[in-house]
Design brief:
The complex is a heterodimer of chains A (77) and B (523).
Chain A (H helix, E strand, L loop, with lengths): L1 H11 L19 H15 L10 H4 L2 H14 L1
Chain B lengths: L5 H16 L5 H16 L1 H34 L6 H40 L21 H16 L9 H9 L1 H4 L7 H9 L6 H34 L6 H32 L17 H7 L2 H16 L2 H7 L3 H23 L3 H30 L7 H23 L3 H13 L7 H4 L1 H4 L6 H23 L2 H5 L4 H21 L13
Helix pairs in contact in B: 1-2, 2-3, 2-6, 3-4, 3-5, 3-6, 4-5, 6-8, 9-10, 9-20, 9-22, 10-17, 12-14, 13-14, 14-15, 15-16, 16-17
Chain lengths: 77, 523
């Protein structure tokens, strides 16, 4: 499942090392448009709904934190 | 109280000493007392409004918390007895109540902001006329109202979304909103990040004090030896640019951007450095903005906390709203339309936030249009770049992008500083229509020569300061400047700091420009 996420992230930004980068938002690597593209990709792939209130740097700074967010949202549903 | 005054420096010193003498659990009380004292000394009339706004925020968040607690309690007790539909209906009813609480409280404080800040700007004429004798001219705009209003709205929104718990102590909430390092010009602090630091005991730490002090001195250097020395030149330029050569007007505009950056980032360095001495990390507001390769990137590096606030509470809620998601799902063009609407809302808000003037709205519109156009034209740019075989990361291409970005930002800022749209258009028009090439310093920088504080010494100091600021920015790209500075032997570091302080004290005092205010404090 994590591999699915990484594959989806790579389709949005091929030049970013999503496996190891831990400050995707804080370091300005991802733009706000790219974050919205990631949100759309996650919603399509994992059938969860990400509300605007969850768009925080802590949830998108790394692939791991995105994965944790997906699992939290799946549990809530 | 002027932040560049000797009395403010004494104030900082007194707060520092008392803070660390106080037992850990009472340190926050020292910060609160200092913040309220600072506010009352700066603008006593505004203190009442700040208290009222804090009270509204406090009551609203207590009501939201009560709603959450009651909902969870009710559902827990009736977990087995209620059907799924009944539970959902109850949750929706609670959500509706929460929405009403949030909307009413935000509407109340926004109404306060509009009444106190915008009505005065709209109805009071800039020069003394009959209008200036009206009731509106008696309105005092509370110091920092634009900043703490946004912080209060952000806090209430996060509590509404149940992203974190509330602050039950009214005075600790008051401390967060009134904290003197961020109340005048930001940064627009996030409650979850800052509040725990304000209320946690802090121990005196040599590294924090040393590094914080270095940054504080650097901030005063930028403010008083660059921004304040340039200010009279810029005032001279904008008061009568119609007699200057186009190249002189352009150079003056560039100096204005440097002045603005030195003023605003200098303030941030003073306050962030001081907070670091207290063991508190304020959010950064600048990240080498002039190295940006696009206007979008520039606004992610300049006034960073305002950009983050706008993304969290305007851009993302619009882009991810029900109608936004439905429309985006149709095709890529519809997706871009939704993003364009979100970006437009951000920039209209940003323009209005700066002030109720057409020039600010135009400034916001220019930036919004550039960013929207960039999003739509990106595929076209990429095709052209690849066809011309220009490597994306090549030095000349990066330099071209940085220069293009700087000029676009510069031309939009000219409207922000101009008294009217017409004046801004004339200023820009002068650059392109007056082609005389001056052959002397007097001709190239006539607004410098004619300024009240001009001497070759003060001008040389300002230019040397600018060169130092540019070098520091380049070093910062590879490694934090303070890390490099702290590798220098202690004795040498002390000499450098002492020279800097003596220069600041000598030329800051002697500057004939009224340096009481910071430029972004007007918002």
């Amino acid at each position: 499942m994590m591999e699915q996420l990484l594959k989806g992230l790579k389709t949005i930004r091929q030049d970013v090392d999503f496996e190891n980068e831990k400050e995707l938002v804080e370091n300005g690597i991802l733009t706000s448009v790219e974050i919205l593209m990631i949100v759309a990709m996650i919603e399509d792939t994992f059938e969860v709904k990400i509300p605007a209130s969850k768009l925080r740097p802590a949830n998108f700074n790394s692939a791991e934190s995105m994965w944790n967010l997906i699992q939290t949202l799946q549990d809530e549903e | 109280m002027s932040i560049t005054s000797f009395s403010f420096v004494l104030f900082l010193l007194a707060v520092f000493v008392i803070y660390y003498l106080m037992p850990g659990k009472w340190q926050w009380v020292v910060l609160l007392a200092a913040s309220l004292l600072f506010y009352i000394l700066s603008q006593p009339a505004g203190a009442l409004y700040l208290l009222l706004l804090t009270a509204v925020t406090y009551v609203a968040t207590r009501m939201l918390e009560k709603n959450t607690r009651n909902r969870k309690c009710f559902l827990r007790e009736r977990k087995e007895t209620l059907s799924k539909e009944e539970k959902l209906a109850f949750k929706n009813k609670c959500k509706h109540k929460r929405k009403i609480i949030l909307i009413c409280s935000i509407a109340l404080i926004v109404a306060g902001l509009i009444s106190l800040k915008y009505l005065r700007q709209i109805f009071v004429a800039p020069q003394g006329t009959l209008q200036s004798q009206s009731l509106f001219s008696k309105i005092i705009v509370p110091l920092g109202i634009s900043y703490y209003t946004l912080m209060a709205i952000g806090y209430m929104a996060e509590v509404y979304w149940e992203n974190y718990g509330i602050e039950r102590n009214f005075f600790k909430l008051l401390l967060f909103l009134s904290f003197f390092p961020h109340i005048t010009q930001g940064p627009i602090s996030d409650f979850e990040t800052l509040a725990p630091q304000l209320c946690s005991p802090q121990k005196l730490d040599y590294r924090n004090v040393s590094r914080g002090f270095q940054r504080l001195v650097w901030g005063f250097f930028k403010k008083m030896l660059i921004a304040d020395l340039l200010a009279p030149y810029i005032e001279n330029l904008f008061s009568d640019f119609s007699q200057y050569a186009g190249i002189a007007v352009l150079l003056g505009a560039v100096l204005y951007m440097i002045q603005l950056y030195a003023d605003f980032s200098g303030y941030m360095d003073i306050m962030c450095g001081y907070c670091e001495m207290l063991g508190i990390q304020l959010a950064e507001n600048f990240k080498s903005p002039f190295f940006s390769r696009s206007v979008s990137e520039f606004w992610r590096r300049w006034h960073i906390t305002l950009g983050e606030w706008l993304r969290k509470y305007i851009y993302y809620p619009i882009a991810l709203s029900n109608w936004g998601v439905k429309l985006s799902q149709k095709n890529s063009v519809c997706k871009k339309i939704v993003l364009s609407i979100a970006i437009s809302a951000v920039w209209i808000f940003t323009g209005l936030w700066h002030g109720a003037k057409w020039t600010f709205l135009l400034w916001g519109a220019i930036n919004g249009v550039i960013i929207i156009a960039s999003n739509w034209l990106e595929p076209f740019y990429e095709k052209v770049r690849k066809k011309l075989r220009v490597r994306d990361n090549s030095a000349p291409y990066r330099a071209f992008q940085m220069l293009r970005t700087f000029l676009l930002i510069l031309f939009s800022e000219i409207f922000a500083i101009s008294n009217s749209v017409r004046s801004g258009c004339l200023f820009i028009g002068r650059i392109f229509t007056e082609h005389t090439i001056p052959h002397s310093f007097r001709g190239l920088l006539p607004f410098v020569n004619g300024a009240s504080n001009f001497t070759m010494v003060t001008f040389a100091i300002a230019i040397a300061g600018i060169v130092l600021m540019i070098i520091a920015a380049y070093v910062e790209k590879k490694k934090p400047v303070r890390d490099c500075f702290n590798k220098v032997p202690v004795g040498f570091r002390l000499v450098i700091l002492t020279i800097a302080i003596l220069l600041i004290a000598s030329f800051g005092v002697q500057s004939s420009w009224n340096a009481e205010g910071f430029m972004y404090a007007n918002f």
